[in-house]
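Batch manifest, entry 17 of 40.
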Amino acid sequence: KKGIKIAKVELKVGWGTFAPVREEDIEDHEIHEEEISLSQTSAGIINETIKNRGDVWAFGTTVTRLLESCATEDGFVNAYDGKTNLFVYPGYEWRIVNHLVTNFHMPDSSLILLVSSFAGKELIKKAYDEALKNEYMFLSYGDSMLII
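Output type: structure tokens
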């Protein structure tokens, strides 16, 4: 009724998701691979949303990596079944995702770099300060934030 369309994806989250980034230069970090699958049907739903100037919401950083991994140069997505090793960090040029729902991540993880790239380092720092001050729960089963 509200015009919201749901595109289902398949993800196999790798343990490397939780590995810390230890390199001084983040570009030297070897990001983990994750298995992803975006069907032709789901790609069509997403592309129709983009074509109609709708917003694409990602629920989770792995979904975000999937969508950005399937992005084309012209700002749409292609169906895909395989692996991604896309490493998103500040300076990344976003093509697909407009809004992100995610939890609070470890400070030295690739995931904190992804959300910092999306929202900006200062806004993420403010959000984390607020979360710590109010004793929010962190990690996979903790509290979430909506970045719009």
